[in-house]
Each structure stands twice: as structure tokens, then as C-alpha cells.
Design a protein that fits this description.
Two copies of one chain form a homodimer. The termini of chain A are far apart. The first copy, chain A, has eleven helices and 13 strands. In chain A, the strands form three sheets. Chain A has a seven-stranded mixed sheet with strand order 8-10-7-11-9-12-13, sandwiched between helices. Chain A is 35% helix and 25% strand. Chain A has two domains: 5-138, 60s Ribosomal Protein L30, Chain: A, CATH 3.30.1330.10; 154-311, Alpha-Beta Complex (Phosphoribosyl-aminoimidazole Synthetase, Chain A, domain 2). Chain A has 318 residues and is an alpha+beta fold. Strand 2 (32-34) of chain A pairs antiparallel with strand 3 of chain B, so a sheet runs across the interface.
Chain lengths: 318, 318
């Protein structure tokens, strides 16, 4: 049943996500009207995901709806911001009601869990892609930046990076094995979990923070460049999920962990001697120390400079 | 010369637009950090333009950069908001430096004129399209909404709607004539001028406002639906540019004016007897009274119900 654009937007994209009292006017006018709380700073980011570039062709609509919000919530997490308001644009080759309903459900469920309201939307005909612009709140001066790491700081990471890249390999038919082992990896790719709670815990602790979207070594390189430092990673400390250990040999696991993308874990630095008890208890995800910040530029892994295949990360135009 | 994504963003999209003291951290981290002024409301909108849908294939890059910001500034104008911060995502089939430079210039020039800073960006490989999310400021309770029109209110419009649609027809080779007549129309399509100053003037005056992006009758229909009213237009009052009068016969001009899109003029309602002297002097564009709000639903033109070909507007999925 073909239906019109405005009707589509009205039906599936209005009233998505959390109800918030600071949304004075939501979807349906030329702009949303929002009331920021007094005395805060706003953190604001935008990210697009494109079919065939950021997710495989034919990925379920609910996973796409989840993903486009998750990658933006992850930016809020990396800043230590509390997410509040999201705007969405969705480009679709055809107006398919079932697809839109599933997409809306995936986005809605994640938004509600993070107290985020969808306050504006725009749907157009075109190749399948989605963009979210997100805004969150941070107390003045408490945002986590990439630029604060100092030599001697410990390098920490949340979760088990590499699982998402291994999960993508599963989806692409490049990894074989029993379903009980492969399914958790597939889920880590399909349903990345933004580490918003951990980001809030890190506000008063971390000297620098970034989310791991393009690969651990690549994103650590960006953090180091912003901070004017280098890093030494110890690959024996890298966290590995039992699924990863069961699915591939140790050398492949090392590569996935260091160079895989799409995990949306947090990579952060702590001054030496920081009390990490709060993080372990309150962040909602395990965190692991994996190395130390060095004065000299460059990333070393087990004493050797990281090669281009690790640093590369995910760069759409190379 | 192929160059990497991050380098591309760094080089062409950082420091675009106005410098603003309320931008604490711009492009280069996981999110921008912004300080809203105390006691204001935020107006926030997002719009995508897609090659082949919202602009013709092969349109110059500078015009595309102008356009993606202009359509969003127009949303700020329609709310009576003062634009402040913009986020951009750009999807490109290939990384072309000359194209990017021109795109950035088009966006930058318009942003500077409207005091808007580009505070975040994301560039990905994909079909040519661009999205801007924009945020502006409004004093509490003063935003212009679509929903406040009352029977008896006068209907006004800025500029000369229809010129952009005629300009697109020129670009598509569907309109012939001397260049001196066609060039102003072409420019009205290529370089829409968001009516931000007029929107600010309307804050204390208009009962309702919308921008004309999909066609005058279609957008008036949305305003009326939001307000629970109808409208009577007098086509003899419709403003016509000298270019329009020179390019087409009166019947074609009437159609372009009532049903053409892409003008980004403001369509607004004023309580009867409003003093429009301030608008005429301060809005930066001529404004014209074209009809009156009625109690009964529906749009009439010269006493006849507007047909589907006028109401239709620009709906991507029909």
C-alpha cells in the first residue's frame, strides 16, 4: 500500500523514544522547540550510516534503526554527556510500511532506554541511509575530550573490542562454526550497545576518551594525536570474549581486537593510581587496562610500532 | 589526488561559517561542546537534500553547499529563531578536492552571513547527498508555530513564489527565452535566500508561519491543518516577478506561483489590522497580502476549491 511521505512520517516517526518535559514542541512544525536546563553545556554530534558502507545490504530494519541511534549515543558516551534529543533523516528507495515500522521499533526501544526523545524527522526518497543528530547535556567543564591524555596515564577499554568485526565476518559468511559460538558475535555487530553509563562515570576520572568505531589502534591513534602523546599496548592484556576465543585462533583474535571496527566501546585514559572500583561497579560493562600512554608519538604493540594494517581503521575513501 | 576521509574533513569542513564564542569545542572530537545563552528556547531542525530528488544531477558544488544550509536556515526563519550552530553530513561517491572546496565555499558564505557556525561534520562514501541539522535561539514563548492561524487573519507571503520552480524548468530545458529574463529565475532556484530577518520581525506579529518549500497551496494546507482552519486565496493579489511575467503566460505564472516548490519564502498569517510597516521596512524582502483565513477547512483559490494539482506540492513518495 503506497502512502504519502507526510503520512509516513506522522505515523511512524512521531512520538518515538522517551517522553521529555523539556520538549516543548516535537515533530510536526518547521523545527522542534526545546528547553535546555540552566547552566549546562550541550554536546552535539551527527552521524550517517549508509547501506553497503556501514551495514550490509539486507540487514533487518530494526537493527538499522538501533544502529543509527547507537552510533550517535556512543558519541554522547565518549563525551560523558547525558543524551536528550535526537533528529533523524531517513532516505528510502521505496516507502515500505513494514520496514518503517520495524526501523521505528529498533530506534524507539534504544531511545527509551537512554531517555532520548526523537524531536524531528525528515524522510526522502533515495538510496537507503539514515542520519541522526543528537544533543546531550554535560556540567560545565566536565566533558571528556580526546586531548587530555598525559605520559604515564593508563589506557583502558570497555567490553571486548573485535567482537563486532568478527560478527560482521560471520554475517558475510567468512567465519564458520557452531551457532552457539557465532551468534553472540553476530549480535555484537547487529546490536552495538552504547556505553552511556560508563561515560557518565568517567566524567570525574578520565583524562581523555574516544569511542572505538573505526578500530582500537586507529581510534587510539586519534586520541594520541589530539593529546600530543604516543601509546604502548600490551596485547596479552587485551580482553577477549569466550565467543571470540571459540571462533578463531589467537592470531586472528588479536587482529580483530586491534583493528576491527564497529564495537562502540569506550577507550579512555586514567591518571596512574586512579581508583577504578566505581567504574567496575557502576559503568555497566567490564573495563580492562591494556597499556600506557608514552611521551613519544606513535602506537607500539608489544614493543613494535603498529603496522599500517592495524592503524588503518575504517576510512571510507582509502 | 586521492586523500583520506579524516584529512578531507579536517581540511574543508573545519572552521566553516561564523566564529562564535558559544562554541567551546568545534569539529575534531566525538561531539561539539556548545553553551546556550541563559533563558532561551532552542529551535532544532534537520533536512537532507539528495541529488536527483532535491536538486538536479550535475548542479555546481557551491550551489549544493548553499542549498543544504539554506533549507535549514529557512526552518529557523519559519520559527522566528536566530540560527547559531549547524552539523553537516556529506555523502560523496568519490573524494574530489575541487568539488569539496566549492561545496565548502557555498556553505561557508551563507553561514557567515547568518552568524552560523559549523560545529560538526561527518563525511562518508555513498550517493551524493547532504544533511544539515541546525539549532537556533528563540525567547521563551515567542516561536512562530503553524498552529495559531484564526479565521479572519490575513494571509501574507514574502518574495515572489514560483520563481524557483520556473528556474528549475529553465535548468531542465523546459523554458526558453532571452537570458536576461531566464537568468534571474535560474538564480532563484540555485540560490534560495532564507528569510531569517523577516522571521525575527514576525516574532511579535504573526499568528502562524511556515516556509514555502513544497508549494504555496500545499504548505498553506499544512498551516491550515495545524491551525484547524481553511483559507481563501485571491490569485489577482499573488506577487509576480518581472522575470516570471516576461518568461511565461499568466496562466503558467499562476500555476508556478501556487504549486511550484523550492522558494523558501515565508507564508504567514497576521491578525486583521496588523501594522505591517515594520515588516515592509525591516524584513529585508517585500511581503504581500494574498488572502484570508476562513473557518471552514480547505483551500479555495478565487472562490473555487484548490484542485489536487495545486495542493499536491512536492511529495517524494507519491
Amino acid at each position: 500500500m503506497p502512502i504519502g511521505e507526510f503520512e509516513l512520517i506522522e505515523r511512524y516517526l512521531s512520538r518515538l523514544g522517551a517522553h521529555r518535559d523539556d520538549v516543548l514542541l516535537g515533530i510536526g512544525d518547521d523545527a522542534a522547540l526545546l528547553r535546555p536546563p540552566p547552566g549546562i553545556e550541550l554536546a552535539s554530534a551527527i552521524d550517517t550510516i549508509v547501506e553497503g558502507v556501514h551495514f550490509p545490504v539486507g540487514m533487518p530494519a530494526a537493527d538499522i534503526g538501533h544502529r543509527v541511534l547507537a552510533v550517535n549515543l556512543s558519541d554522547m558516551a565518549a563525551m560523558g554527556a547525558e543524551p536528550a534529543w535526537a533528529l533523524l533523516t531517513l532516505t528510502l528507495p521505496v516507502a515500505d510500511e513494514a520496514w518503517l515500522r520495524d526501523f521505528a521499533t529498533g530506534l524507539h526501544d534504544l531511545a527509551r532506554r537512554h531517555g532520548t526523545a526523537l524531536v524531528g524527522g525528515d524522510t526522502t526518497a533515495g538510496p537507503l541511509m539514515a542520519t541522526v543528530a543528537i544533543t546531550g547535556f554535560v556540567p560545565p567543564g566536565q566533558a571528556l575530550r580526546r586531548s587530555g591524555a598525559r605520559p604515564g596515564d593508563e589506557i583502558w577499554v570497555s567490553g571486548t573490542p573485535g567482537d563486532a568485526a568478527a560478527g560482521l565476518a560471520v554475517l558475510q559468511g567468512k567465519l564458520d562454526g557452531p551457532d552457539a559460538i557465532l551468534e553472540p558475535l553476530r549480535q555484537r555487530f547487529l546490536r552495538p550497545e552504547p556505553r552511556v553509563g560508563l561515560g557518565l562515570c568517567l566524567r570525574s576520572m578520565a583524562s581523555a576518551c574516544i569511542d572505538v568505531s573505526d578500530g582500537l589502534v586507529g581510534d587510539l591513534g586519534k586520541l594520541c594525536e589530539s593529546s600530543g602523546v604516543g601509546a604502548e599496548l600490551d596485547s596479552t592484556l587485551l580482553p577477549r570474549s569466550s565467543a571470540m576465543r571459540g571462533a578463531v585462533d589467537p592470531e586472528a583474535a588479536r587482529r580483530f581486537t586491534l583493528a576491527g571496527g564497529d564495537d562502540y566501546e569506550l577507550l579512555f585514559t586514567l591518571p596512574p593510581g586512579s581508583d577504578t572500583g566505581l567504574l567496575q561497579r557502576g559503568g555497566g560493562v567490564a573495563v580492562t587496562r591494556i597499556g600506557v600512554i608514552a611521551a613519544a608519538a606513535g602506537i607500539a604493540v608489544d614493543g613494535e610500532p603498529a603496522g599500517r594494517e592495524l592503524v588503518h581503521g575504517f576510512d571510507h575513501f582509502r
